[in-house]
Amino acid sequence: MQQFDLTIRHGLVASDEAVFEADVGIVGDRIVEVARGLPAGRRDIDATGRYVLPGGIDTHCHVEQRSGMGIMGADDWYSASVAAAYGGTTMIVPFAAQHRGHSLKQVADDYAALAAAKSVIDYSYHLIVSETDRQTLQEDLVEQIRRGITSFKVYMTYDQLKIDDYQMLDVLALAARERALVMVHAENNDVIRWVSQKLLESGRTAPKYHATSHVALAESEATNRVIQLSKLFDVPVLIVHVSAQDALATIGAAQRMGAQVYGETCPHYLLLTEDAMDLPGVEGAKYCCSPPLRDANAQEALWTALKDGVLQTVSSDHAPYRFDESGKLPHGDATTFKQMANGMPGLETRLPLLFSEGVNKGRMTLPEFVALSATNHARMYGIAPRKGLVTVGADADIAVWDPRHEVVLTASGLHDRVGYTPYEGTKVTGWPRTVISAGRVIVDDGRFDAQPGSGRFIPRSTPLPFQNERALSASSRFFRGLAEGASSEAHATFGYTDRKNQN
Ligand code: URP
Ligand code: ZN
Ligand code: ZN
Fold first, then answer.
1. How far, in Å, CA of 352 to CA of 476, rounded?
2. Which residues carry this modification: N6-carboxylysine (predicted)?
């Protein structure tokens, strides 16, 4: 019988499909057995009364990154990865952000070095692409995709990052050819700009007007627009941080009509409303994110969309800006809603909140929680089968949850460097008491044990939406060919002529 380095015994293991009694045997960094009645390993964890779940994967978080407004976040790869681990997340995928005028290759190389030196858990990163010149798209982006960075984000708003529709078409065509997943921040920039300008001119500067200016139709219009553009090439797109019913309805309708569109939401849209921003002075800035918090009806629609499969992932969108002049309040108490850094912390609280409010309150099953917190992330972003399930052959990334353990969330009890939490005083039930990263017990009953740089870069394979590619329509083949500069003779071989295209 094999000698295990580590065993987790007497617990309930959950996958995205089932919950079952099993012990888990680990050798080195891998799971080598999942079965009943395993003998104790060199180290043995008693999981009686606990759930043995795949470590969470957070595929949308901002770490050691400058925002769309040019503001540096407070967390580096060390503090962010420690906070993630305490919250049951064993892989993070933040963003190497290309701001306008910068080389994508340089941005990616610099970011890789920061991550390698500091992360305590395994990681990858997406790119944020803000330039669409030949060097960026055809050289640097292609090189990054081929080394396993198989997804990237584009913005339809934020002046320093946004791309226009023409550029979006270049990006989508490239993604179709290279089989990379495009994540889209979908908000109509001009609607936000126009409403903001009028609000400021009329003296409405308080944080709560952020929500007014990022009106839900700005989100649904941009969501619809990028979905339509993606249909030109029949290329998958994933709409990140979906916040409202209109955008959800747009995504759901497009899915029913066969568009390859996927979606993500975040705990703050499920649990908070825009009323949180209506506080004295600039206090409401703590709750400012884009898209903004909405209302109770939006929350209900989002929970339903997680159940129905319209949305595939729940990510933190951790955006760590301190409540001071370095982040939320660049002009102190005189900061207007237009000047506040956008985003909220959430790496450590993502899974406990989703577990407490989702599983323990009966809004989702345990397998659904596993899917939304880990398995779907692994599949959507090319990390499966290496991660995302407690199964033989997978990396030993595991969180052992006590479903009854109660924690009152406070900023001082969390491990990021933000200094506040939007959930101060909120009681959650259920917490990951033991967290294992690649076979190492890194969190055990509140104690942390991992060195900076001990996390590994995980090259990612082709995202799931490209793995079972369907036959392309003649129209999609034509426009994909057109993006590559194919001649009309070449197009004729696809059975799609220039004349047809004139209709
Ligand atoms: O407000 C947010 N979400 N800030 C983070 C940046 C982004 O667009 O995701
Ligand atoms: Zn965004
Ligand atoms: Zn984000």
1. 43
2. 153
